[in-house]
Amino acid sequence: MAIMLEARQLGTTIRGRNVLNDLTFSFQKGYTYGIIGPNGVGKSTLLKLLSGVLPPSQGDIFLEGRSIAAYSRKEAARKLAVLQQGVLPPIGFTVREVIEMGRFPYQNWFGNEAVDCSPIINQAIAAMGLEKLEQRKMAELSGGERQRVALAKVIVQQAEVILLDEPTTYLDIGYQIQLLDTVKSWQREQGITVVSVLHDLNLAALYCDEVLVLHRGRIAALGKPQHIYTTELIREVYGAEASIMNHPLTGAPQILLAPNVRINNGELE
Ligand SMILES: Nc1ncnc2c1ncn2[C@@H]1O[C@H](COP(=O)(O)OP(=O)(O)OP(=O)(O)O)[C@@H](O)[C@H]1O
């Protein structure tokens, strides 16, 4: 099995505070990984380290065996595409123009490409259900529509690794499933590696081959959801009481949260 991304003794300090410590793990080519953990634990920070935009304070990241720091910007962008959280898209442009910006790693100095990129742009527009919106200005879209444009822009980058920071933010449950299904079929078709920060542990169990759980700046668990999701882990990491059931269709572990108030015959007391 080929290793696509590897972290060795990775650590980072932000404003004198140790956020992530001694993380060592590897992600295999062609797999989907979820990064989960409580608010503020460092999930987005880990994604920034993996994409090379934030240099680590300790340790190193290897992309196909080569330190990420040794890649040029365009070289890295052809290998790795990132959907960042909360980054405002350029609102003066149309949907199609913004998606075309995802092709920058393949453009020359004048913004031209050697091959016609319209087939891949059209494919991404269709995959994200944006056909009717392609001439709309970004400023005229809802939060969920903008998120779908941002993902289409990532898809057209045709990278081997995609890093997604909370890709389901702003999306209703229908679009959450549509987006994750699109990413999954894209991943299978192209054999790419997907690393996604997810808050929803149930979606992570449905879509990820393996999940990395962060707790207090370290790895609390890394493995298949059915092996690592336990009531003890949920209690330790989130301080929440949960029951774990198997999904009736897929068998994936699904977490049911238990309210702290007492329940009698289905009524809260
Ligand atoms: N630019 C910054 N300046 C100061 N502290 C920061 C900065 N960026 C992140 N932090 C801190 O680093 C820690 C990790 O932040 P990060 O955004 O990676 O967490 P997260 O797990 O993605 O959180 P969430 O689930 O809330 O999105 C937090 O305590 C945060 O306050």
Automatic annotation (TrEMBL):
Start and end residues of each ABC transporter domain: 5-241
Keywords, in A-Z order: ATP-binding, Nucleotide-binding, Translocase, Transport
CDD domains in the cross-refs: ABC_Iron-Siderophores_B12_Hemin
Gene Ontology MF, one: ATP hydrolysis activity
Record InterPro entries: AAA+_ATPase (IPR003593), ABC_transporter-like_ATP-bd (IPR003439), ABC_transporter-like_CS (IPR017871), P-loop_NTPase (IPR027417)
Highest rank taxon of the organism: Bacteria
Record has Transcription as a keyword: no
SMART domains membership: AAA (SM00382)
This protein's record includes keyword Transport: yes
Protein name per its UniProtKB record: Iron complex transport system ATP-binding protein
